[in-house]
Automatic annotation (TrEMBL), chain A:
<feature type="transmembrane region" description="Helical">
    <location>
        <begin position="184"/>
        <end position="200"/>
    </location>
</feature>
<keyword id="KW-0472">Membrane</keyword>
<comment type="subunit">
    <text>Heterodimer of a catalytic subunit (MsrP) and a heme-binding subunit (MsrQ).</text>
</comment>
<feature type="transmembrane region" description="Helical">
    <location>
        <begin position="123"/>
        <end position="142"/>
    </location>
</feature>
<keyword id="KW-0408">Iron</keyword>
<keyword id="KW-0285">Flavoprotein</keyword>
<keyword id="KW-0349">Heme</keyword>
<comment type="similarity">
    <text>Belongs to the MsrQ family.</text>
</comment>
<dbReference type="InterPro" id="IPR013130">
    <property type="entry name" value="Fe3_Rdtase_TM_dom"/>
</dbReference>
<feature type="domain" description="Ferric oxidoreductase">
    <location>
        <begin position="53"/>
        <end position="166"/>
    </location>
</feature>
<keyword id="KW-0288">FMN</keyword>
<feature type="transmembrane region" description="Helical">
    <location>
        <begin position="56"/>
        <end position="73"/>
    </location>
</feature>
<feature type="transmembrane region" description="Helical">
    <location>
        <begin position="18"/>
        <end position="36"/>
    </location>
</feature>
<feature type="transmembrane region" description="Helical">
    <location>
        <begin position="85"/>
        <end position="103"/>
    </location>
</feature>
<dbReference type="Pfam" id="PF01794">
    <property type="entry name" value="Ferric_reduct"/>
</dbReference>
<feature type="transmembrane region" description="Helical">
    <location>
        <begin position="154"/>
        <end position="172"/>
    </location>
</feature>
<keyword id="KW-0813">Transport</keyword>
């Protein structure tokens, strides 16, 4: 039987989801194995913080890449994977935040909030994380129904804010090292993914209005 | 390579020493890359012999010393110092060297010498990190004359009873234990005595974050994180609370250098 990438049957989609789930869990499992074996290096907290931060950004980028990729390839089933990818972005963001709350502040919430208010780079990262919470909370089919498709979609456009905030957070963190190569790369990727949407929304409409070349 | 040195009990803190492995694999040395693991990986290309150190500027006796005469200039001592990085972690390292003041006295600074500037080697062939624009190369650090003359300020050639590993600033570096780690310039090729305050690398990169003095001070936060506490590498693991950072990193004997100065402004 010839399988075409442009359409998947339900069984194939299920298998694909299982594979995706396992792959997306690997970075977390790696952290667990490294922690148990004491492979996190001289500064374990720093290692975990950076690693979970990196994976949050990776998953945010992948989430944002789904729609452009789908448009370019015509693989409509990609949209069926987006929820899981987005939830993994939230999962790694939550681990990142927990590392900060637990190992940096030992659950001293008052101290933690002081840090959030006082330091712009933490303010921005914290805001991005808080904005992700309603998206994760409304990710079920029941919630989509309750909100109604339109409102749900509007809410989930928060991701267009969350991703740049996440990069700004990373940018300011790296400012201490004066080393912007990584944040610039992330910035370019997210900018391209967002601009693609702007182009499809407005650029094409304008093209459709102008008379066709003959 | 072993390095004989007598411990100097006047300069030995009782804290548990950081393991050699941690101290030699967790480094900030941007000439070899900005990741903490980069220096240990990349510093093999650094050629530490032959090496010369030029003493110049406002001195009566400018000179150029090779490594052997530098090592023989004064008896080598072992001193165990706390090291506090501006990033919020700390170590305890047994260094080998002698007070920088010994060298300064030999050079006989003139009355115009108000500051001392340390210049790190900047050779693209040996240092892959120089290709990146993170800092203005060569790395320059500096001290006020009285800070440089303070007996705690150590001209350092070894650690853990051996010559310095390349990633720790071989063959000769400065260690100023009451200041954040970046003040302690590595792999020094030049010591210059100046009238004007030196333009130091991190201060040039971000003056609002890294002052010229950069004394360890739990009351003056870095704009992006608190300096009130620190994580001791190898000891304060994942589940241990961080320890309180001490004023001047616990070296209160230097406090008199700063009487009358507002250390919040001159951070």
């Amino acid at each position: 039987m010839a399988t075409s990438l442009s359409s998947l049957n339900p069984a194939q989609l299920r298998r694909l989801k299982v594979v995706l789930f396992i792959v997306a869990t690997l970075p977390f499992l790696r952290l667990v194995v490294y922690t148990i074996n004491d492979w996190l290096g001289a500064n374990p907290v720093e290692f975990i913080t950076r690693n979970t931060g990196d994976w949050t950004l990776y998953f945010l980028c992948i989430t944002l890449a789904v729609t452009p990729l789908r448009r370019l390839t015509g693989w409509n089933w990609l949209i069926r994977l987006r929820r899981m990818i987005g939830l993994f972005a939230f999962f790694y963001a939550a681990l990142h935040f927990m590392t900060f709350l637990w190992f940096d502040h030992f659950f001293d919430v008052a101290e933690m909030l002081k840090d959030v208010v006082k330091r712009p780079f933490i303010t921005v990262g914290f805001t991005a994380f808080v904005l992700l919470i309603p998206l994760a909370a409304t990710s079920t089919n029941a919630m989509i129904k309750r909100l109604g498709g339109k409102r749900w979609q509007w809410l989930h456009r928060l991701i267009y804010l969350v991703a740049p905030l996440g990069i700004l957070h990373y940018w300011w963190m790296k400012a201490g090292k004066n080393d912007f190569s990584q944040p610039i790369l992330f910035g370019l990727i997210v900018a391209a993914l967002l601009l693609a949407r702007v182009y499809w929304r407005f650029g094409q409409r304008a093209a459709a209005r102008s008379p066709a070349a003959g | 390579q072993k390095l004989a040195a007598k411990p100097n009990p006047a300069f030995v803190v009782m804290d548990k020493q950081t393991s050699f492995k941690d101290a030699s694999t967790y480094n900030n040395y941007y000439e070899f890359g900005t990741d903490k693991a980069d220096p240990a990986r990349n510093a093999g290309t650094l050629k530490t012999r032959p090496w010369t150190l030029a003493i110049e500027g406002e001195v009566k006796k400018p000179m150029t010393l090779d490594l052997d005469s530098l090592m023989k200039l004064a008896p080598l001592e072992e001193r165990v110092y706390r090291l506090r990085c501006v990033e919020g972690w700390s170590m305890v390292v047994p260094w080998v060297g002698y007070s920088l003041s010994e060298l300064i006295k030999k050079a006989e600074p003139t009355g115009d010498a108000k500051y001392v500037e340390f210049v790190t080697l900047a050779d693209k062939a040996q240092m892959p990190g120089l290709g990146s624009p993170v800092l203005k190369w060569p790395y320059v650090e500096g001290l006020r004359m009285d800070e440089a003359m303070h007996p705690l300020t150590l001209l350092t050639v070894g650690m853990y009873g051996e010559v310095l590993p390349n990633q720790n600033g071989a063959p000769v570096r400065i260690v100023v234990p009451w200041k954040y780690g970046f003040k302690s310039a590595k792999s020094i090729v030049k010591v210059r005595f100046t009238k004007e305050q030196p333009k130091t690398a991190w201060n040039l990169a971000a003056a609002s974050e890294y002052g010229f003095y950069s004394n360890v001070n739990p009351e003056v936060d870095h704009p992006r994180w608190s300096q009130a506490s620190e994580r001791r590498i190898g000891e304060d693991g994942l589940f241990a609370k961080k320890r309180k950072t001490l004023m001047f990193n616990g070296y209160n004997e230097v406090a008199s250098l700063y009487t009358g100065m507002d250390l919040r402004k001159l951070f």
